[in-house]
Amino acid sequence: MATTHLAVEIAVPDEELAERLAERLVATGAAAGTRTSSGPSHYRWEGTVERRVDWTVTAFTTRDRLDAVYDLVDDCHPDDLPGVTYRGVNAREEFRDWIERNTGPDVGESDVIDDLPRPIESDACESEVSESDETSE
After folding, report:
1. N or C: which end of the chain has fewer CB within 10 A?
2. How many other CB atoms are there within 10 angstroms of residue 94's CB atom?
3. Domain 5-119 maps to which CATH number in 2.60.40.770, 3.60.10.10, 3.30.70.120, 3.30.420.10?
4. What CA–CA distance (Å, rounded) separates 4 from 95?
C-alpha cells in the first residue's frame, strides 16, 4: 500500500519566496502545514558547480494533493528545474488525521486552521531547575 501522507521538500532561492510559498500552500489547501529552514546548497548546473543558500519549505500534504503542490511551485518558482522531493510521513495517527482534515480543494483562505496537534502536557517537557539554581538568582 502506498503512503498517502507526504512531506514535500521544496528548495527556493530566498526567504521571501519561501514565506510566500509556505503561506500559499496552506491557504489553498495544498498542504496542511509547512516548515521552513535554510542552508547551503551545492549542485551542478549546465556544467558548473554552483553554491547558494537555499530555503527549504517542507509541506505536509497527501498524495491526492501532490499535483496542487507542483502547480503552486510551477506558478511561482524562478528556477528552470525546481528542487522538489517528497517522502512518506510515518507519524502518529492524530498527525496524519490532521493532515487529511486540513488539505483539499474545500480548505480555503477563510478557514481557520486551528486544530494543530497540541504538545503533550507533561512534566517531561519542562526544563529542570535545581533548588540551588533557584536560590542563586
Report:
1. N
2. 10
3. 3.30.70.120
4. 13
